[in-house]
């Protein structure tokens, strides 16, 4: 497959290694990695007509206005004990005017008044993968779209979706704005098997932070999984999955964003209920499901 830009289609949660997000897991042995089938997720920019995902109310997602707190999954990413990404509506944002305000979405026209060169922008919509772009100035962005790095106007790249400045989601130290813009522009025209990123988020984050972990094959997938995706199920309940590489974890996070909060909670709840009898019976030798009450 070479460096084909790809999407990860997840197996069910029962087959995914899980762990305690506090890092207190005592099993030091290697775990089996997450299995995926590959294709391109950023081609899925049009609403999915046959999607089975529904809102808690049972209505089709496209019939309701977009509400980030209703539709988006709160989660955190840890590399060993360090939090490197967090999406939370309860985090205080003094500079942005309140809790979770950095996750507020705006129309593309309003975003143009807020963006500065080097900013990352995340466009969001129900039943679609988030689309990330790098703002390079003069109303233009650079982004990975349909297996090619392209330069577009921000309003065109949005395809009518609402968006937000996404600089605060990843906790890595950013490069200078000029370097971020240069990283993005230098890749324009790169396509197909010459690409080094599986999706628009990995490309945009690499431009801003310069870390090889965002590239295809940037990390060796051996030994114990150092990355953890902590998914918030309720105010004091979370579920954690382990991954061997950041790019694999990002693909699972994006899958959760695409299917939506209600579907993720339903999927995990069904999995947790199915595993409870095995845990209670003491006969389950698989890596355990650990849903933490904080």
Topology:
Blueprint: E1 7-10, E2 36-39, H1 68-71, E3 75-79, E4 82-87, H2 108-112, E5 120-124, E6 131-137, E7 140-144, E8 149-153, H3 154-158, E9 162-165, H4 177-186, H5 200-209, E10 227-234, E11 237-243, H6 246-259, H7 261-281, E12 291-293
Antiparallel strand pairs: 1-2, 3-4, 3-10, 5-6, 5-9, 6-7, 7-8, 10-11, 11-12
Tell me the distance between the termini: 42 Å
Q: Report the count of strand segments.
A: 12
Average pLDDT rating = 78
**Shape verdict:** globular
Cα radius of gyration in angstroms: 19 Å
Which spans have pLDDT < 50 for at least 5 consecutive residues? 1-39, 43-63, 280-294
Q: How is the biggest beta sheet arranged?
A: 5 strands, antiparallel
Structural class: alpha+beta
Helix-strand pattern, N to C?
Answer: EEHEEHEEEEHEHHEEHHE
Q: Given the structure, what is the number of helices?
A: 7
| Strands side by side in the biggest sheet | 4-3-10-11-12
Report helical residue fraction: 10-25%
- As a percent range, the share of strand residues is 15-25%
Please tell me about this protein's structure.
The chain is α+β, with helices and mostly antiparallel strands and 294 residues long. Helices cover 23% and strands 21% of the residues. It contains 7 helices and 12 strands. It has helices spanning 68-71, 108-112, 154-158, 177-186, 200-209, 246-259, 261-281; strands at residues 7-10, 36-39, 75-79, 82-87, 120-124, 131-137, 140-144, 149-153, 162-165, 227-234, 237-243, 291-293. The longest helix is centred in the C-terminal third of the chain and has 21 residues, at 261-281.
């Amino acid at each position: 497959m070479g460096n084909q830009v790809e999407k990860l289609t997840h197996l069910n949660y029962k087959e995914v290694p899980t762990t305690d997000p506090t890092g207190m897991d005592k099993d030091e042995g290697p775990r089996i990695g997450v299995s995926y089938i590959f294709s391109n997720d950023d081609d899925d920019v049009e609403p999915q007509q046959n999607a089975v995902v529904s809102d808690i109310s049972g209505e089709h997602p496209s019939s309701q206005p977009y509400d980030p707190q209703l539709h988006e999954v709160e989660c955190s990413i840890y590399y060993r004990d360090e939090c490197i990404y967090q999406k939370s509506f309860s985090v205080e944002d003094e500079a942005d005017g309140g809790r979770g305000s950095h996750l507020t979405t705006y129309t593309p026209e309003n975003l143009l008044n807020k963006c500065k060169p080097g900013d990352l922008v995340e466009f969001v919509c129900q039943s679609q993968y988030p689309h990330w772009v790098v703002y390079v100035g003069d109303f233009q962005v650079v982004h990975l779209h349909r297996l090619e790095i392209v330069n577009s106007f921000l309003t065109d790249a949005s395809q009518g979706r609402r968006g937000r400045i996404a600089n605060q989601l990843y906790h890595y130290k950013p490069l200078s704005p000029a370097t971020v813009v240069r990283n993005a522009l230098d890749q324009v025209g790169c396509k197909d098997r010459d690409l080094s990123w599986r999706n628009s988020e990995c490309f945009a984050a690499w431009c801003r932070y310069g870390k090889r972990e965002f590239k295809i094959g940037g990390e060796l997938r051996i030994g114990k999984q150092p990355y953890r995706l902590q998914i918030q199920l309720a105010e004091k309940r979370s579920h954690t999955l382990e991954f061997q590489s950041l790019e694999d974890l990002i693909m699972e996070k994006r899958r959760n964003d695409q299917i939506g909060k209600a579907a993720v909670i339903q999927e995990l709840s069904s999995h947790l209920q199915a595993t409870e009898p095995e845990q209670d019976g003491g006969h389950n030798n698989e890596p355990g499901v650990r849903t933490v009450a904080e």
